[in-house]
Amino acid sequence: AKAKARIAAYKPDVVIAVDDNAQKYVVSDLANGGPPFVFLGVNADPMTYCYLRSLEAPGGQVTGSIERARFEQSFALLQQLVPEARNLAILCDDGPTGKSVVTRVQEKAAALDINIVALKQTGSFSEWQSFVQKVQTEADALLVIVYHTLKDDAGQPVHEDTVLSWTINNSNLPDLGFWGWAVEGGLLCSEAISGFQQGHYAATVASYVLMGQSPGEFPVDKPQRGEVCVNLARAKMLGIEIPYELARTATLYQTIGASAQ
User: Fold this and answer.
1) CB neighbour burial string for 88-110, b if at least 16 within 10 angstroms, e if fewer
2) Are 118 and 142 a contacting pair, CB within 8 Å?
3) Grouped pLDDT means (10 residues each) for the chain, 261 residues
4) CB under 8 Å to 155, separation ≥6 — which residues?
């Protein structure tokens, strides 16, 4: 509601709308009577938001760039570091971004002969903690997708940095994620989704909109490259040695977020 009010008051010439929540709660309602929109960070099928004619020729007042988790590439990267990893536990919050990612991961894991031994989507931090402790003896690796909508037992939001820090400090499983910021925060590795490519496309389209073109003239984009990321501090915690060639070419992070007990 605040976002809609701000748009109505400011009357922008174009709005860049990031992530699925923005599409669900703002863009879908304003697509036919509001300003032009350019989206990015969308994990669901954008056609489900009913503001595009097609991905190739959107028409109307909305277009943008979708993001797709690079599961095959990220798990292959993990297996470079932990060759025996086969049994995977998956953990995700219950927000709209994660739900579509989980579905695609399940589909791809079956095709890749990766065994998902446990899966949890929850909005409860205590349930999250219990799951992490439970899977320590069941899985070879832990996939942490998103962790931004959790609440404590009193119903208060738990900061995402607290969630990730607790997870890292209470798990001995090699972990992977799908975004560079998650590896920067302490997960072991990822062939990360490129926020840069999405942002570059969105800003380019927005600049053309400012010059008078309609967003609907631009096809929906999907970045084709990822960024290999490794956290050296997490590798040291887990006793994992990073091969020289990988360390030479990957984006490396040296620290882990503040410890949360």
Assistant:
1) bbbbbbbbbbbbbbbeebeeebe
2) no
3) 96 96 95 95 93 96 94 96 96 89 92 93 98 97 96 97 96 96 96 91 97 96 90 97 94 75 34
4) none
Distance between CA 80 and CA 162 in Å, rounded? 29
- In 10 A of CB 154, how many CB atoms? 5
Q: Residue 92, SS3?
A: strand
Closest to 140 measured CA to CA, from 199, 229, 78: 78
Of 119, 120, 107, 100, nearest to 24 by C-alpha is 100
Residue 155 CB coordination number (10 Å):
8
Two tokens, residue 150? 């959790």
| Bridge partners (DSSP) listed for residue 239 | none
pTM value?
0.80
